[in-house]
Write a structure and sequence with these properties.
255 residues; alpha/beta; Quinone Oxidoreductase, Chain A, domain 1; Rossmann fold; 2 domains; five-stranded antiparallel beta sheet; five-stranded parallel beta sheet; 7 helices; 12 strands; globular
Length: 255
Amino acid sequence: MQAIEITRFGTPDVLQPVQRPRPQPGPGEVLIKVAASGVNRPDVFQRRGHYAPPPGASDLPGLEVAGTLVEGDFAAANPFGLKPGDAVCALLAGGGYAEYAVAPLVQCLPVPKGFSMIEAAALPENFFTVWSNVFVRGQLGHGEGGSRESLLVQGGSSGIGVTAIQLAHALGHRVFATAGNAEKCAACEQLGAELAINYREQDFAEAVKQATDGRGVDVILDMVAGDYIPREIDALAEGGRLVFIATLGGAKGEI
């Protein structure tokens, strides 16, 4: 099969087409004939030499794809009743930049009605990440704030950010977001954020506390960390949850 390989670390020109053997699915896995692959920040980091694939994962970049199921272990956990020939989008540990890719069956979703393969390929990484971190780990809607809680999304204009805003808003929660300029803040509010805060001009902790009458928010989804941590703790309501998914601002913070 044809695949895109990182021939050396560097700029985008190090990505080159190569021939690779077609991967074989193992227990609980399926083979997907890839129609489209998503592009994510870890792909860029991997190309630059700053991200190593997990042990046992393909060295090829690509963490999400959309395509058609070919073969695999369909007797494994299969909540959607998927079968060969079905159109799916899937989250991978790597290997998405290829004509065929292997994914765990439980990480495959049917392509939503009305979505093209290209659109569907952009769903898994962001939606799996947001759902698992905001709603499973962060328990939005299941804390002291009751069924309608509040969420602060750091980096609201990022892929993760726009997904978190839309999902939380659609489920009836109050949503606040931060972004780096007025245009991005306006986009966040159009997507469902009650208030978008320009972090270059405002203290997000003060803005959130003012908007919640001093209570603070129930959940914060953070990809910055570093010196944001003490301000985020200040912005949390009693019983609030702070969920980290990245440390772009540094892995250490003083409280």
